[in-house]
Amino acid sequence: MFQLDRRDAVAILTMVHGKANAFDLEFSQGLTQQLEKLHASDARAVVVTSTGAIFSAGVDLVRLLNEGTGYIPGFLDALTDCFEAALLFPKPLVAAINGHAIAGGCILACCADRRVMAHGTGRVGVPELLVGVPFPAVALELLRQTVAPQYLQEIIYSAATFTDEEALRRGLVNELVEPAELLDRAVAHATRMAALPHEAFAISKQQFRSSLVERVRQSAVNEAAMKQYWTSPKALDAIRAYVDRTLKKKS
After folding, report:
1. pTM above 0.85, yes or no
2. Are the CB atoms for 134 and 128 separated by under 8 Å?
3. Which sign does the torsion angle of CA 142, 1, 167, 95 carry?
4. Buried (b) or exposed (e) across 24-62, using 16+ Cβ within 10 A?
């Protein structure tokens, strides 16, 4: 599911989970484990990317429907743990977005300290409400801290996906580069941040994100309601309808 390479002090974590790097239980747990290993390693910074035309298409909705209600709560916990591991990763984390970053893929990118996208390769956005499900608290809080404030409600309530230039304007990505330059540019950003004093960077990052983490921790009641809704017949019907009109139509 993952390939690990190295350029001097920078580790390059490449996601290779099917065509779309869709989040399922094992992929979410695996990404958390990879980040934990990289935390303990001598790498001074990490670039996360993928191969092909998709950075990540978000939750594996087909798997979710096939597994049913017994699968969903544990999967949502693993997904939240994965995002929190990326969010709280103490070393510099750079996202090299090589293609579509949709739903959970967009949220994963928002966990990074810098988001570089290959120009003309895909769309970025969070269509959860179009799918028919509410956001986990960590996803909402990441968006709140990441994007330009005047675009936050539009990004959430429109359930739209945006072109790379629209995503740049809204703050979903920080920079656009030519596809051939993507990895080199992301590694350059990671190398620059890796050269900063490690402990000072980690403490500053923790301070910067502490209010976000606190808001997530205070959302326990809303989080319980979110999980309950994801397992409801209404939500599963909405997910099934979304899959039928989008994913299956493309196959």
Report:
1. yes
2. yes
3. positive
4. bbebbbbbbebbeebeeeebbbbbbbbeeebbbbbbbbe
Structure tokens at 15: 């996601």
The residues, ordered by sequence, that sit 6+ positions from 76 with a Cβ below 8 Å of its Cβ are 136, 226, 227, 230
Average pLDDT over residues 36-51: 97
d(C-alpha 247, C-alpha 251), whole Å: 7
Angle between helices 72-87 and 137-146 (to 10 degrees): 30
Closest-CA residue to 120 (of 197, 196, 199, 173)? 173
Of the CA atoms within 13 Å of residue 241, those in its CB half-sphere come to 11
Tens-digit pLDDT profile for residues 102-145: 999 999 999 999 999 999 999 999 999 999 999 888 888 899 88
**Which tokens is 203 given?**
């403490």
- Residues 47, 191: contact at Cβ < 8 Å? no
Domains of the chain (ranges; CATH) run: 2-179 (3.90.226.10)
Query: What distance in Å separates the CA atoms of residue 154 and residue 156, rounded to the nearest whole number?
Result: 6
Query: What one-character DSSP code corresponds to residue 147?
Result: S
Q: Tokens 């958390």 correspond to what residue?
A: 32
Bridge-based pairing of strands 45-50 and 93-97 is: parallel
